[in-house]
Amino acid sequence: xxxxxxxxxxxxxxxxxxxxxxxxxxxxxxxxxxxxxxxxxxxxxxxxxxxxxxxxxxxxxxxxxxxxxxxxxxxxxxxxxxxxxxxxxxxxxxxxxxxxxxxxxxxxxxxxxxxxxxxxxxxxxxxxxxxxxxxxxxxxxxxxxxxxxxxxxxxxxxxxxxxxxxxxxxxxxxxxxxxxxxxxxxxxxxxxxxxxxxxxxxxxxxxxxxxxxxxxxxxxxxxxxxxxxxxxxxxxxxxxxxxxxxxxxxxxxxxxxxxxxxxxxxxxxxxxxxxxxxxxxxxxxxxxxxxxxxxxxxxxxxxxxxxxxxxxxxxxxxxxxxxxxxxxxxxxxxxxxxxxxxxxxxxxxxxxxxxxxxxxxxxxxxxxxxxxxxxxxxxxxxxxxxxxxxxxxxxxxxxxxxxxxxxxxxxxxxxxxxxxxxxxxxxxxxxxxxxxxxxxxxxxxxxxxxxxxxxxxxxxx
Length: 461
What we know:
Layout: H1 2-15, E1 21-28, H2 31-38, E2 44-49, E3 52-60, H3 63-73, E4 81-84, H4 89-101, H5 105-118, H6 123-135, H7 139-150, H8 156-174, E5 176-189, E6 200-203, E7 206-209, E8 217-231, E9 236-247, E10 255-267, E11 271-284, E12 287-295, E13 298-302, E14 306-318, E15 327-339, E16 343-355, E17 366-378, E18 383-396, E19 408-421, E20 426-439, E21 446-460
Antiparallel strand pairs: 1-3, 1-4, 2-3, 5-8, 5-21, 6-7, 8-9, 9-10, 10-11, 11-12, 11-13, 12-14, 13-14, 14-15, 15-16, 16-17, 17-18, 18-19, 19-20, 20-21
Helix pairs in contact: 4-5, 5-6, 6-7, 7-8
């Protein structure tokens, strides 16, 4: 019985030894289970691959025929995929090239690595290996592999091709990358001063009247961003400047903000470590308002579809008009993103503590938890729809004795935007944002609606 089973498997493999492609519909670790299942499938056969017994259907001499058949059976076998049957070095190399052409560089890398372990002098495989490393942005490793092939004195056409790759790698390693944008916006805010909609605030034994005369205002703002990245052999240096300026009516306070950022980052195959430092400066009514220094070291782990980032936060706030308000913030955040073909989904959770080293203030000292959700969807080649939601829970840790309880704020941000690419460099953006601050202290309770239309000029060098 065992001999007949072995003959069946060997016959299945040898019968299709000259065939390039088949369709795999299942895999088993136990041979008897595979044999039981294959009897139920018309024209099914078994191929042994490593420690698995693969159930296959069909034999095809080219990829096109296999692909056409795969589409026909996808409904019945949703996990089916095309399989190269032969396992010689030539066939593995062919399969690696197939993966490379389809953009699956990780799979191509694994196959080529396997070939070179068994045959280190295989120059053809090494050239393909170097090309895959280039696509994976492992430029230093790619250059080393190309240089190994050059040392073996390959044909002139191969030499020229390799030298062009090495030239690209050298230019990429030295290249200074610039990108930025200028954004002009026209906005309308139905509560620009964040005034409370509650008429009375109970304070001590008094009932204080809140100013509920909400100020509606239209204004313009100008945003500017410029970033520069310099690449070294083993790390990147990034510097950027961002400014935000509001142009409001004479009776409305306009905000002006500038942010300088510098970071050093190292990038490996699947993770990035970064040490960013930011300095921000805000002015209100052309008067010095606030400055902050933020240091947030982080590590990012990623693959083709998922991204994880963990960040530590160290922030120092200084108020020029009132030094008594100076304080610090410490915290951490966790970010996760998922990438699909036309869809991006991101989420983050941030925990922070605001503290003062000297005298504690009841309007500053607090604990904060912030949850954010984002979604970008590419409607078409030139259109993108975005949604955002942010929930912030702030619990103040020092009690105002006149209130008799701790202040708690629960803030909700909801936003949606539509972006249309007018030209290769100019975008049109429509934005709506709703903000609600639900506070147990009535004077801090407010909600507002913001509408804006923006024209954005982008550049990359």
